[in-house]
Amino acid sequence: MPLLFLNEKSWGTACDPARAERAMADFVAVVRAAAAEGGATLVSEVDVKALEIVEGYPINKWIGASPRNRVLWQRLRALQGRSPVRSVFPAEDATDHLEYRHDGEVVLGLGAAHFMDGIAVSLPVARPWQSDHVTLERSELVEADDGALDVRHDTVEVRHLSADPHLDGHLEWIRKTRRDQVTTGSRIWDSRADLYPHLAFLPRVEDQLRDLSPHWVVPVRRALERLEEAVAAWDPATMAEPEWRTKVTPEGETRKRVCRFTDLDGKTHTFDLHARFTPGVGRIHFRLVPEERTIRLAHIGSKIRPEV
């Protein structure tokens, strides 16, 4: 089920009441259309009923303005989820590790939509929300292999809706998301052959995936998808390793000893190549198996720490 995340920044701006009426009608229409295609749920940081549509025009006043508005509100209310936006982030207070901004302002809903690989929805009043994608500035606190902490800044695109025409560009993704329903680590493990035919998983990874926190399912899934894309395009006869679609690095010599695991052949090998999933110190460790045109994954979880 795809998630729709309310962009709180699009509410409470200045416009005339007639424009506010049209904006609310468009907003309800596009949320309902997305839900009809994919069974989507609207997630918001606060109860939508507590918001102001525009300055000085709270939703309660809009609801009471006409029977039509009351019907629209009932339709919207039926699609609102119970959990707040913050609940999609990892329990260890991801705000310390990850922050999204738009035009210099922190945006919870837009950021959650990107982090959870969902869609942001906005009230179509201001010009920035008249597009099917929105660009965000992202800041992540990342831990290097040597333990040093650094803040990485980049820009990302988030799927976005504020009017029916925006839905056209996302229909295929919504339908695919509903069909695949990869919402748990167990589903990743059980469907690995279909989802990632060019990746091989050691048996020890099964428990790691089945025990995967719900907050980490999307970051892990996306990292695996990028590894799959890279390996699928890999020709070991002409390339020493795939052209990675995500950051992949080897461990330093002093850490390679903690990356040795028993492989499928019963022998111990070093799985020091690793991709990252964030926020935090998530790692996917693997080794190249060029004779099979695959990579073999040995660890999916937190950064491997030396045994004390």
Describe this structure in words.
The chain is α/β, with parallel strands linked by helices and 308 residues long. The chain folds into two domains: 3-178, no CATH class; 182-302, no CATH class. It has ten helices and 16 strands. The chain has a seven-stranded mixed β-sheet with strand order 2-1-7-9-8-5-6. A five-stranded mixed β-sheet has the order 10-16-15-14-11. A two-stranded antiparallel sheet has the order 3-4. Strand 3 (52-54) and strand 4 (57-58) form a beta hairpin. Helix 1 (17-38) runs parallel beside helix 3. It is elongated and about 75 Å long. The mean pLDDT is 87.
Summary tags:
alpha/beta, seven-stranded mixed sheet, five-stranded mixed sheet, 26% strand, elongated
Apparent shape: elongated
Number of helices: 10
Q: Encode the helix/strand succession as letters.
A: EHEEEHHEEHEEEHHHHEHHEEEEEE
Strand content: 25-35%
Overall radius of gyration: 22 Å
N-to-C terminal Cα separation, in Å?
A: 42 Å
Describe the strand arrangement of the main beta sheet, using strand numbers.
Answer: 2-1-7-9-8-5-6
Please give a quick description of this structure:
This protein is an alpha/beta fold and 308 residues long. The chain is 30% helix and 26% strand.
